[in-house]
Amino acid sequence: MAQHKQTAHDFIQCAFSPQVAVLTSNDAEQLCQKNNLSFTQLVQPFCRLTTEAQIKDPNNVLHTLQRLRIGMIDMNCQVSTPLVAKKMMNDTVTNEQPQIHEGSRGNVMTVGDYDLQLSSATPWFEAYRDVFLQTIPPSEHEFLKHCLACIFVVSSSHPEPLAMLHTLSNTQQQQQSQFPNKLPQWFSPNILKYYVLVHDMVEAEAAKAEAVYQSMKSSFGHQSCHLLQINSRSVTAVETTDTSFPDPWGQFLHKTPDNMEGVDYDGSASSGAEEGSFPNKVEEGTEKHAINDGLNGIGNNSTVIDHPLALSDSLPSPGFEDYPSLPSKGSHMSLSSVQSSMTKSGSFHSEKGRVMGHGMCLTASDQDRIRIFIHEFSVRALIPWAERQMRTLNELLMSRAGFRKSIVGTAKKWFGGNTNKTGQVANTATTVVYSKDAPELQMRRLADLAFLFQLYEFAYNTYHTAKRDFNNDHAWLHFAGALEMASLSTFMQGPQSQRVYPDHYMESAITTYLQSCKNEPYAVRATLTSTEALTSRGKYKEAAMQFIKMMSEDVFTSAVFQESDLRAALLLEQAAHCFINMRPPMVRKYAFHMILSGHRFTKSGQRKHALRSYNQALQIYKGKGWDLAEDHINFTVGRQYHNLKQLENATAAFKHLLTVASRQPAPQQNAFLREYLFVYRQLLMQEVEETGLQSNTLPELPLPALDSNATRVLTGARPLQPHDDKTYATGVWFDDVEGSSKNWEKLEELLVMSANGGSLPLAYRPSNALYSNSTDNKFNPVGYVREPITIEIYLVNPLKVAVTLTDVKLLWSFLPTIASHDKPQLITNETMLSAKNNLADEIVQGQVVKEIILQGSDRLPVKMTLVPHQMGELRIYGLTYNLGSHATTFMAPSQGPDSLGVGVAGSHKASYVSTVYVRGKQKIEVQGPRLNGKKEEMAGKMYGPDRRLDLSVHQEMPILQVSFTNFPKTLLCGEVHLVTVTFTNTGSIPLQKLKLASTNPKYFVLGRSEDLKLPANVYSISSNLKDNSAFVTCDRNSVKHVCDIDIPNGVLHQASSVSLPLWIRGNDIGGVHEVDLLFYYQASQQTTKPRYRLLRHSVQVNTVESLSVRAVAQRACKHSSETEHISVTDFVISCELENLSQIQLSRSHVREVCVRQISCSSQRWGVEPLSRTAHTDTKIGSRELLQVCLKSMVLSESAHRPDMYTFTDLPFQNTRLLSSATPCREFYLRSRVKLKSFDLETTVNPPSAQLGPPKVDPELAFESLNCAINLDMALIILWEAQVVDSAGEERTCVGQHHVIVEKPESFFTSYPFQILPKERPPIKFTREEVTSEVIKPAFEVLTQLVSYTMKHKTRQTHSFQQTRVCLLGVTLMLQNNSEADVTVLVDTSRAQQRLSDIQDAAGQALENSTTGFSWVGQTQRQVTMTPKQVLELSLSVSFSRPGVYNINNLAVFVSHTNDVSEMTLQKQTRPSVVSVLDKGHQ
Fold first, then answer.
1. Does the N-terminal peptide bond of residue 958 adopt cis geometry, omega within 30 degrees of 0?
2. 3-class SS shares of the chain: helix, strand, coil, % to 5
3. Which of 84, 216, 530, 940 could form a cystine bridge with 225, CB 3.0-4.6 A?
4. Which of 549, 521, 520, 519 has its CA nearest to residue 534?
5. pTM (2 d.p.)
6. Cα–Cα distance measured from residue 722 to residue 735, given in angstroms and rounded to the nearest whole number
7. pLDDT tens digits for 339-374?
């Protein structure tokens, strides 16, 4: 339970206090009305004794009474009906509202993960409880609500005070004797009668009052009389004094709520059969029909006042179906006259109507006199009377205890004739009816009297004895009452009692009340008192169960008590507080029962309390995954706020229903959305009605959700779409792959270095046009005047129903840059005023999207554009739109600004069906990257800046537009295609320093504008076939990633264009290849940063395999006679050309390839055909192979220059293609250049390259030796192909392949080989000794330093019969291929160990026969040869028999140093064959 102002003991004492009736005369009542109070109300705040009192129990033991409270009942009050009682309870709960201040830590309770702001007290429950206990009428089974005494009050100004007192006494006596069933009920026939004379200190005479008082003491006894002096302050003094006085009477008066029934309290929501006749006001009257007329709204002649039950906080009220009615008008004349006189003054206001407060004529002395009056009445009259009554009842009961063992049995024997036991069911739902003087009731009367005067031990024993008798008689109502009071008697004894609180007694009492007696009010009373006792002992769980038990029993069917919903709500709320006060607290049970309580509050019409209950439960369910429960609470809270006209809070509650985590079905979400829109629109209209002006700021809307971090910003115009055969530079757009940004940054770095003389500026920072969550957004993006800025925002619809946005535009603020000293004014387009919006549109022109339809659970990107017209700082901070619900009859796809017909002003009409929409905004708030650099950043969640939406608008810049005409999408491998590229300056400022950078410059050649004037052929053609060579200067260093673009005069003015030829060659590897081109340019007159601009173009070209070329160079081996000249420097080149294409029907394919020409480019070599016969049939069909043999020869010395290349052409047709001209020469030159890998190329050497001693390149160290095998020869194969497309049409393509022949005896192809990276060795953690590496020439070079051939007769005839040995002279020709001096050793001996491992070109072992022939003469010769020297040695060979012999079995050793021991065997050349014939056998 919640905390209450009263302790459990105080509450029970107040609930069961001695009741005293008050009967006043008309003049006494008018005297009290000066204070706007009746007599009963006047003394009500002082009815508790402030001092201790003494009382003796029947055993003559003295006891102390602590804070005894007396209940006063006005006999003149009107009897309340059940509906009036219900009205009073509803009003009481309505008037009490929680006092929770937001942010007050005193109301915050921390339970686990919950920080709950709870109401520590529930005053509405206490007020309801007090009124409920007051409205329970007295019952015949107990005497706790029976009046023990009657106080008769008369004024000293009455003409005959004593006679009036006798009249009042007779009236009471007559009512008690003639109408015993009418209220109030009396405790016994001889009640205490007390007489009070009220004296007005200002208007009445004191002497007369004293005389009357003395007469009263003589007539009634001095213990039964009292003179009360009041009204020491005159009415005139009160009217002229503005001093406010304390009002202790307000808490005891019934308050009627203000005229807010339609807002705070909803009477129509209450359950019950009499809801239609529920009164809002009570009309006072004396007759029964007058009361009924007032309830039905017919009695219009009576005065409407607050309910008279407010006179006392303990007045009886009907609670049963047989509740007694008021006496009729003719029942007793004196009582009727008294009631009639009271009716005239029932308004409790002075006739003048000028004194409106309470107790205004009472001074502090008057209040003290009232306290003295209550004290004397209690101590001198009431307590002694109670002692006598208890003693009498106890003696009566004890005198009959000797006849039988049981006091109950004795009572039955002696008073059997007076005990009426019938089988009929009485009105109290019990099977036994006792007479008024039955011993059982006398015992109960004794116990009740003892309990009322705090004799709890004696009361418990008496209750316990009576409980057994009632149980034996099956008097269940009496039994339940005895159990209830026995339990409370034990509790009220406190810690001094040796008994444990018998909570099972109370459980049995409640169960008996509900099930056996069907008596709901007393079950509720027992629950209220029992739960107070349990919670005071910390038994919150048991108390909660009792509260819930009252709800689980289906007993709320009485037509009299129809306040069950309100009572159920209050009991459920108290059960919830019990759960939260448990240890440990049961938070979820608290929340669940608060929801149930809120539901019952709603049914009872208590909107504010229902709202409070739901808000309390929302604290537990919010954000804990209870989505459906949270939605239910928010929806109910929103409805309650709307009913209470708190539209702002209602809008906030409905806003929570439109979240990402909503798991509601689509129809429910649609209802939530429409409810939100309806309430929000009402709120906006209310603000306009209250202020008369429309707000300058837009409200924030919950839908759709914005994925702010996914927002991307693009500075610059959207790339143009292809038109006919013209394509435009792709530029930067939102669909670009973000992973390629490193390549673009590297290209930009190369371009900036080229423009700045090979170095980067100190403050260099890569530029960026597209800003996203993955880019570095520490710096502000740069935009330019009159250039669009495009924002891509992702709209997310968390609901399952479609929503429609109309008139969507970006919200921005702009701070212009002005040259004056005046502070610039911030401009924004959020204002609702049209004049300001027109001014904002002139500064920054924004796009307006007419309609966006966002389907359920959809995520749609929306692109919107802003165009600034002034320099300044532009900040984009939100999105504004009209939000409406979409028609659910069809499900169209989501439509954004890129959809057809959307976003064009005046061209599209909103298609959604929605009668309710609101205009609002959403903020775009991006979050920067998480910081982890410092310790505090890693410990906490700290984020860096993200300025992608804060743009800096600079002055105008030139705008480069690049277009490509006839750009191919598919090429053959090696195909050369001509493209015209046009550069146009669409800006208003001239541009200069136009440059181009590419990731792979090998496959395109950019020409000059003069080249466009040549014929449209790709290659230059010449008909001069004799002059087939040309000397051209070629600079390999000219091939770079960056090239300058030649424009006239170096400046491209605004609206000017320049066109250049661009030759593109297909990649030698088939597949899809992407080439990135980055254009760089600067403004001709630009002083501010950035100084340059970039334009991207990314193109994909698909290459198809066409031709494959293989080539091998072999040294020439020519066998001739001695007189024929033999050159050992010539090479024979064999080329194999294969058509790799395959014919495919209905698909594009290469029909045939025709080889038009083979050219050679080298500094040393030239080529010529081996045959003098013309060969024109060089066509190669699909999958066919063509073999071509050429002869290479050393060029003349005059043509050998370091920077000069000789191009030798061998055409196969009547025309010669100039291989030394553009573009053939450039593509060849690019194939010879080995550029560094683009990914590995850096501007700064890596640290590893700067550490350690410099490494020596073996190729440079032994360059004089390596030239022995370096041919440095390139073959250029120019071809023409016939391509058949899918439509069957043919087109002619031309292209070229390159084969670089680097060394002899090795195969080389046109297909480029990819060098795989070497695997890194495992890391070693042990220190190894560093040994100096000895650098030696390659073994392949050492074996080919000297080439040799033999000159001899190939046919020798000899007569072996004449001479046994045939001698043949052989000339050995040696040539030093290197440019260093070498030592040559020629060995002709037959050393088997030398020659056994030598293999010929075919890979077979040379046969070294021991017979047949042998070299004669000197076996070893050693000579020294100078660079490039040719030397001849004369040798002789002898043959012993005829045959065919290969005499090339000698060994040639070469050493390039003086150390002869390091000689290397040279590679064996071709066989040298000699045929020896026997002349005798011819």
1. no
2. 30, 25, 45
3. 216
4. 549
5. 0.71
6. 17
7. 333 333 333 333 434 446 787 888 889 889 999 999
